[in-house]
Amino acid sequence: MITTGCQEALSAGLRAICQAGDIVAVDSPCYHGTMQTLKGLGMKALEIPTDPLTGINLEALEMALEQWPVKVILLTPNCNNPLGYIMPDARKKRLLMLAQRYDVAIIEDDVYGDIAYSYPRPRTIKSFDDDGRVLLCSSFSKTLAPGLRIGWIAPGRYLERVLHMKYIGTGATATQPQFAIAEFIRHGHYMQHLRRMRIRYQQNRDLMTCWITQYFPAGTRVSQPRGGFMLWIELHEEFDTLRLNRCLENQGVQIAVGSIFSAAGKYRNCLRINYAQKLTADVERAVKQVGLTITQIMQSQSGP
Ligand SMILES: Cc1ncc(COP(=O)(O)O)c(C=O)c1O
Questions:
Q1: For the segment 258-270, what is each residue's pLDDT rounded down to a tens digit?
Q2: 6 C-alpha to center of ligand 1: Å?
Q3: Other CB atoms within 10 Å distance of the CB of residue 141
Q4: Best of 14, 81, 110, 166 for a ligand 1 pocket test (most atoms within 8 Å of beta carbon)
Q5: Is the CATH number 3.90.1150.10 carried by domain 191-302?
Q6: What is the per-residue pLDDT for 302?
Q7: pTM, 2 dp
Q8: For 174, how many CA atoms within 13 A lie in the half-sphere containing its CB?
Q9: Which CATH number does the domain 2-185 belong to among 3.40.640.10, 3.40.50.720, 3.40.980.10, 3.40.50.170?
Q10: I want to staple 151 with a disulfide (CB 3.0 to 4.6 A). Which of 6, 54, 115, 254 is the partner?
Q11: CA angle 3, 147, 110 (to 5 degrees)
Q12: Number of the ligand 1 atom closest to the C-alpha atom of 140
């Protein structure tokens, strides 16, 4: 089913299965748009600890499923935003088995799956699904352009309910951008474009990581994304990125503070940096400025 971006796919999937007050287990840190959707719909996000290399912790998830009446597990297993990992296939299968055992649905956000740096692209949980409990959501926002607003959901056994939510939400999705994208794909441009983007984002990741290592204080920890275009950065546990953000606002530099990736306000010492754009000398200056401001704040905190 075609949707207005991945955001509508996620929201329609959630509204089809859950009501206000229901519990949704999410990988943590979790994409802030999802957090806002859950909050806006009055649903409760149950944050499951997540490994920066292998994804959602299955033991913690099992304990949560044992203890709470979880309705849905919502996660981004491929090229996760913000951590950048790809969950190994064996763990995807184990997750699916858990969902079957506890009879819960899985909403799988695959919006970055096509821009994994490895080829062929990673498998989805949906590709292992044999009883229709996975609702796969994605879009062309990260691969072609967010302004097209063309996404989709493959809702498995929830088709009728998702269709109803889509209908009472936005009705049909605009058809002209769909025709344009279909032509683009038909002529073979999409795969060619993906090949170029994969190389560019991987190069940007390496350069941005280099700048962070060079300009941020010693002890800074940086993620190693395997796709997408986000770096997750962890500073000293006492550090407050909200304070950093206030200082940077006056200098015209924008970061995403860690706490927006948690319903409980965790990750205050973390930030996310986007490296999708061309990494010019201006961007390097901005990264240097962030590093310098962090160092200044740290020095003022450890003052005499
Ligand atoms: C993980 C994730 N899911 C969904 C979305 C929303 O995608 P769209 O612009 O297609 O609605 C984003 C956008 O940033 C995202 O990062």
A1: 999 999 999 999 9
A2: 6
A3: 18
A4: 81
A5: yes
A6: 77
A7: 0.97
A8: 10
A9: 3.40.640.10
A10: 6
A11: 50
A12: 10
